[in-house]
Structures are given as C-alpha cells and as structure tokens.
Amino acid sequence: MTVTINELINHTYIDKELSAALDSTEAFEGPEKLLEIWFFPSSNGIPQSKGRRLTLRDIQLEQWVEILKLVKCEVLSIKSTSQMNAFLLSESSLFVYDHKLTLKTCGTTTTLLCLQRLFDIVEKQLGWDLRDGSKYHPFKVFYSRRCFMFPMKQRSIHKSWSSEVEYLNQFFCDGRSYLVGRNDQSNHWNLYVTETSKAEEYSSQEEDETLEVLMTGLDPNYSKQFVTNREINEHEDQGHLLGYNITKSTKLDCLYDNKTNANFTHDAFAFTPCGYSTNMVIDDQYYYTIHVTPEKGWSYASFESNVPVSKISLKQQDNGQVLNNVLGVFQPAEFCLTFFAKDGSSLNKLANVTKSIEHYSKRDKIIYDLDDYQLLYMRFERI
Ligand SMILES: C[S@@+](CC[C@H](N)C(=O)[O-])C[C@H]1O[C@@H](n2cnc3c(N)ncnc32)[C@H](O)[C@@H]1O
C-alpha cells in the first residue's frame, strides 16, 4: 500500500492561504487531547427527524470551521470517502462519520470548549434528541490524553485533568475518570469514559478497536526527517507537497499490509520550520493518523489507528508488527501504548507480543475491563 501523486490533487477541500502561511517556532505541546463521541452505535441507528434522516456529514464546512474556532484550530484540508470525512487540521485531525466523530488536537487547543456548540447543531439542525434533563446522553463518549509536557501553558479548563472532568460532567451523565499509569508528572495517561447507553448496546454490530502509540524523546537522526525548513511563500502550497514527500521517504504509507487492495486515501502536511501531520484512510472507513513534533527538547510523535489489522492483511499481520513498523520510523526513548478492543483475544495477543519488543523494556502494563471494552495500557523505555 503506497500513496500516489494523485493524492495531492484530489482534496475535497484545501485552504491554500493557510497551508502557505503556517509557522510556529515556540515550544510546542505535542501530546493531544482526544475526544471521541459516538452519537449512535452505528449509522443504521440514526433516527429520522421530520421525515428526513440527517447525519453528522450533513453539517456544512462553515459550521465545522465555526466549531473548530472554539477549539482554536483551523482546517488545512479534507479528504472524503463514501463513509467518512478526514480533516487535516492546523493542530492534528478530525474524522467525521455519519454517527460518530473523533477530534484529536494538540498544542494549546481548547477541545472541550466546542461541546456546547456541537450539541446545539446536532440537536437543532440534525434533529437528534440526545437530551437527558439538562445533560446529553450520546451512545458513548471517550476523552483521553497523555500528561502534558507544559501543563501551565494550557488554556482554560485544560490546565488540569480535574477541571476537564468537571466540565465533561456538566454535559454527560455516568462519566468515569481514570488516571492510568504512574502518578507522577510525566508518566501517565488520563481517560474519561461514559457508560454505554444500555438500551442500544446490543444493537451495535460494529467491531471497534483503537491503537494509540505516544512516543517521546525521538532519535534526532530519525526526527530530522520531519524538518523541512521550507520558505513561506504565500502563493504556493508547499506544505502538502513536502508532506507527501515525507510520507514516501519515511514509508509511513506502508505500515499496514493491505492484502485486500482496499481503497487508500492519503493527506499529509509538512509544517514550517518543522512538524508533520498525516491522515490515511483505508477501505473508505478506517483511518490511521500520525503527528510529529520533531523539535529537540520536546520531541513527540503519535500514531492512532482504528484499522482492523487482521481483516486488512488477511491475517498476515498483527498489531505487534504494526507497532514495530511505527517504532522503526521514530526510534523513541520512551513510549506508551493504549489499545481499546471489544474482543479480548486481540488485546491479549498484543499484550503478549509486546513482551518481546527489541531494544525496549516494559515499565508498566495495566488492563481495565470497561463495560463493553477492554483497555490495555503499556509503557516502555529504550534499554
Ligand atoms: C505537526 S503538528 C502535530 C502535533 C501533534 N500533536 C504532535 O506533536 O505529534 C506540531 C508540529 O508542527 C509544528 N508547527 C509549525 N507550525 C505550526 C502551526 N501553525 N500549528 C501547529 N503546529 C505547527 C510544531 O512546532 C510541531 O513541531
């Protein structure tokens, strides 16, 4: 599976002015805030309203721009497939399906401050009744993040986990908050998750697994691949061209063995003076997304994927091999991984495979049973 030059010209949307002018030279908070909202268990579960069935993908671009303004980030470009819209943002990514969305943003973005506007739009425009008294009850909500490197630089409620949880609890019923890993400044990960709406739980046929790998202390010989130092030129969109070149040279488009020849859609951007983001969509419905902050001192890269590796590779590959491919590109000094799965066997398999990651030693391993999901958290350090 490799990307082709066609990927540079078939965007659904592209902000050429923004793409040409983005620049950031200050210390950057790579670790992202990750919000995933399942409004319904599947697209089949979306109700009709006034004789029409509207979905998240009926929300217009101008409204996403307005929602993202509250988050303090902008849309660089969009790739659409038959089942989802993949937004590449000035600070990471947004994936919109008919019934669910994933918003991943880094830096000093204010992810949760878009919740009220998002639910207003969903309620008034799509006609979805998600009210539970003064709160909302979507099918499921996940909000997570690794501990920040520069917590005091964060804005508003994002300065502390407890104020983020307090804010989430104003919107949702039955939310639970976890501190996963060591209770020190730099080695933990936080999760907020709402209880699955029981009435709909068993109508969900959707298989779902998500692997995240959060890497720090990137090897400078490898992270320099993400430094381009391009000249800012208002008239040329070099960011997407250089992003494409980096994808090819690092082979980040070859992490999965696409044995089914499923459609592959790709969008990447190289920031200036450095930094890289990419969204890859496989089979029109699964994504993996990679974001890189290569600066020495606060280097960071994240990989997140909901690609069902065994289906896409016809059982030729597993998540352990994908993990090794990812580590090979960044060679981090440390990383933690989180893996959510409904099926305990893929989780156990990954937990066992990772016993033998070359050059790394396991420091923490934690498994949670979260009603319909199991969660594996592991942290490793280079030996
Ligand atoms: C590519 S973004 C991805 C963030 C992602 N969460 C991560 O760090 O892995 C961050 C990188 O791009 C660089 N960058 C340059 N201009 C930027 C901008 N306007 N907004 C965000 N990042 C920018 C940052 O300095 C950093 O190296």
Would you mind describing this structure in some detail?
It is a single chain. This protein has two domains: 11-20 and 31-201, S-adenosylmethionine decarboxylase; 209-382, S-adenosylmethionine decarboxylase, CATH 3.60.90.10. Helices cover 22% and strands 32% of the residues. It is built from ten helices and 19 strands. It has helices at residues 16-21, 61-71, 115-124, 161-171, 198-201, 220-223, 238-250, 309-312, 319-330, 344-353; strands spanning 13-14, 33-38, 75-80, 85-89, 92-96, 100-105, 131-132, 135-136, 140-146, 175-181, 188-194, 209-218, 264-270, 276-282, 286-293, 300-305, 332-341, 360-370, 373-382. The protein has a nine-stranded antiparallel β-sheet with strand order 1-3-4-5-6-2-9-11-10. The longest helix is centred in the middle third of the chain and has 13 residues, at 238-250. The model has no long low-confidence stretch (mean pLDDT 91). It binds S-adenosylmethionine. S-adenosylmethionine binds next to strand 14, strand 15 and strand 16. It comes from Zygosaccharomyces bailii (strain CLIB 213 / ATCC 58445 / CBS 680 / BCRC 21525 / NBRC 1098 / NCYC 1416 / NRRL Y-2227). The record marks 91-92 as: Cleavage (non-hydrolytic).
Tally of DSSP helical segments: 10
First-last Cα distance: 32 Å
CATH architecture of the largest domain: 4-Layer Sandwich
What is the CATH topology classification name of the largest domain? Answer: S-adenosylmethionine decarboxylase
User: Which strands sit side by side, in order, in the main sheet?
Assistant: 1-3-4-5-6-2-9-11-10
What's the β-strand tally?
A: 19
What ions, cofactors and ligands are bound?
S-adenosylmethionine
Number of domains: 2
- Name the average pLDDT: 91
User: H/E element string?
Assistant: EHEHEEEEHEEEHEEHEHHEEEEHHEHEE
The helix content is 10-25%
Binding site for substrate: 28, 91, 271, 295
Organism: Zygosaccharomyces bailii (strain CLIB 213 / ATCC 58445 / CBS 680 / BCRC 21525 / NBRC 1098 / NCYC 1416 / NRRL Y-2227)
EC number: 4.1.1.50
Active site: 92 (schiff-base intermediate with substrate), 106 (proton donor), 277 (proton acceptor), 291 (proton acceptor)
